């Protein structure tokens, strides 16, 4: 797969800063960027603990999420999983991190959907109604489907962005991004993975809809599911290929079980 760079890459020159803390998860989510080239590159690592180091596997989830979206036909921000050396707080770490490119076009400025909604909403309309009024129904339906399949815990109002060009007077919604806090993201041991219930309706952060991905999927018209490419059992290989070198296979098996069972329940919710 061309979304994983296995060769060890020296990224020790990057400076890491703490991002917005999400979903009450312990630890920190550190981000960085490199703007020395023609295209700005963004980097993020999995959950980091100042004592234990990098303890999460959110970057692996990001790659699985994008592969799933590729299979079923949903547009999204592209990530690469890079085997890298980095420096944090004077310590050196070897890890797999995510790299993405700037998706803004020349002249565009980004604003969170949460802030854009606060500025432009009409009366008592909900974020869901607001998005439909702006013609983003296709985007929202796809997002709700993906977030159900992945059990995305972290679709707050800053994890959806709007891109505006004041000169051209254009407004568009940014590609889907940030799916790290999903799947079995809070499992820190094989015992927790084994005990994880794939169809459990865990409470999530969601700016559009409710705190239940199962309830939110009911906002999607049933006929819309037919617009997606069907997920098949043979897609397991493409979804998980080469990741056994990055994370224990017990995690990968549970992740596949989770995605497959959730796909099979889409029409029944």
Overall mean pLDDT: 94
Any idea of the CATH topology of the largest domain? Answer: Phosphatidylinositol 3-kinase Catalytic Subunit, Chain A, Domain 5
In the CATH hierarchy, what is the class of the largest domain? Mainly Alpha
Return Rg in Å: 19 Å
Question: Share of helix among residues?
Answer: 25-40%
Number of separate structural domains: 2
Largest sheet: 6 strands, mixed
Strand content: 15-25%
Distance between the ends:
34 Å
Instruction: Name the CATH architecture of the largest domain.
Output: Orthogonal Bundle
Strand order, biggest sheet? 1-7-8-4-3-2
Per DSSP E runs of 2 or more residues, the count of β-strands stands at: 13
Structural notes for this entry:
The chain is α+β, with helices and mostly antiparallel strands and 269 residues long. It has two domains: 4-101; 109-268, Phosphatidylinositol 3-kinase Catalytic Subunit, Chain A, Domain 5 (Orthogonal Bundle), CATH 1.10.1070. Helix content is 28%, strand content 22%. The chain has eight helices and 13 strands. A hairpin with a 4-residue loop joins strand 11 (161-165) and strand 12.
Q: Topology of this protein?
A:
Elements: E1 4-10, E2 17-18, E3 30-34, E4 41-44, E5 48-49, E6 53-54, H1 58-72, E7 79-88, E8 91-101, E9 109-112, H2 113-120, H3 127-133, H4 137-150, E10 154-155, E11 161-165, E12 170-173, H5 190-195, E13 205-206, H6 213-217, H7 236-240, H8 249-264
Parallel strand pairs: 1-7, 10-13
Antiparallel strand pairs: 2-3, 3-4, 4-8, 5-6, 7-8, 9-11, 11-12
């Amino acid at each position: 797969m061309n979304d994983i760079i296995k060769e060890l890459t020296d990224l020790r020159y990057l400076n890491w800063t703490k991002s917005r803390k999400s979903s009450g998860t312990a630890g920190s989510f550190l981000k960085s960027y490199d703007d020395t080239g023609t295209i700005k590159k963004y980097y993020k690592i999995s959950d980091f603990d100042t004592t234990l180091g990098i303890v999460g596997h959110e970057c692996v989830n990001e790659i699985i999420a994008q592969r799933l979206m590729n299979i079923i036909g949903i547009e999204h921000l592209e990530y690469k999983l890079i085997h890298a050396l980095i420096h944090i707080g004077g310590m050196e770490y070897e890890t797999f991190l995510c790299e993405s490119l700037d998706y803004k076009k020349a002249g565009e400025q980004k604003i969170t959907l949460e802030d854009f909604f606060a500025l432009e909403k009409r009366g008592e309309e909900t974020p869901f109604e607001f998005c439909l009024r702006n013609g983003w129904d296709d985007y929202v339906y796809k997002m709700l489907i993906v977030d159900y399949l992945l059990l995305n815990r972290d679709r707050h109002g800053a994890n959806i962005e709007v891109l505006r060009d004041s000169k051209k007077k254009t407004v568009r919604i940014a590609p889907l991004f940030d799916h790290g806090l999903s799947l079995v993201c809070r499992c820190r041991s094989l015992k927790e993975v084994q005990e994880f219930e794939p169809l459990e309706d865990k409470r999530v952060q969601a700016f559009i809809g409710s705190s239940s991905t199962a309830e939110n999927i009911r906002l999607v018209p049933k006929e819309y599911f037919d617009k997606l490419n069907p997920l098949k059992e043979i897609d397991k290989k493409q979804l998980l290929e080469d990741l056994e070198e990055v994370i224990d296979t017990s995690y990968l098996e549970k992740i596949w079980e989770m995605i497959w069972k959730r796909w099979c329940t889409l029409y029944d919710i």
